[in-house]
Amino acid sequence: MKSEAYLFAGVAVFFLLTDAAYIWFAREPAGIAALTVSCFMASLIAFFCLINHRRKGERPEDRPTGEIRERSGRVDFFPPHSRNPVITAAGVTTCAVGVIYGFWLFVIGFGVFAVGLLGMVFEFVGRDDA
Fold first, then answer.
1. How far is 88 from 99, CA to CA, in rounded Å?
2. Which is nearest to 11 in space by CA: 34, 44, 37, 39?
3. What pLDDT is attached to residue 93?
4. HEC states along the chain?
5. So what's the pLDDT on residue 130?
């Protein structure tokens, strides 16, 4: 993760320098905002990778002597088919339409969104992973 952290830190520095030049020469607010947000997003990913490297240590992929078999075994739990993402997407879509057509539709969409989100969060709460 250390190499990824350095890569995204370099991307963040690039966007920072580009943003500074854009502020100096162009002074156009939309471009300045886009470059600033890009710098922050790259910084966030670099920070995440660096913290992950410090917490978990070096991965086999980070070492030149790393073997494929060191990463074998169970990766993680991947949930089976679920209807909750579709419900959540329908709720978000109804909320977006509610912004245009009225607050009453937004409230209905928020209710549908909350049901879908809570369904995704609590779907596997009692699951025994061992």
1. 17
2. 39
3. 96
4. CHHHHHHHHHHHHHHHHHHHHHHHHCCCHHHHHHHHHHHHHHHHHHHHHHHHHHHHCCCHHHCCCCCHHHHCCCCCCCCCCCCHHHHHHHHHHHHHHHHHHCHHHHHHHHHHHHHHHHHHHHCCCCCCCC
5. 46
Query: In angstroms, rounded to a whole number, what is the distance separating the alpha carbons of residues 51 and 72?
Result: 24
Sorted by sequence, the CB contacts under 8 Å of residue 44 that are 6+ apart come out as none
pLDDT tens digit string along 33-90? 999 999 999 999 999 988 888 887 777 777 778 777 777 777 666 777 889 999 999 9
Q: Which residue bears the tokens 């995440």? A: 48
| CB atoms closer than 10 angstroms to residue 49 | 19
Q: Which of 50, 38, 34, 30 is CA-nearest to residue 11?
A: 38
108's tokens: 């209905």
Contact 59, 66 (CB under 8 A): yes
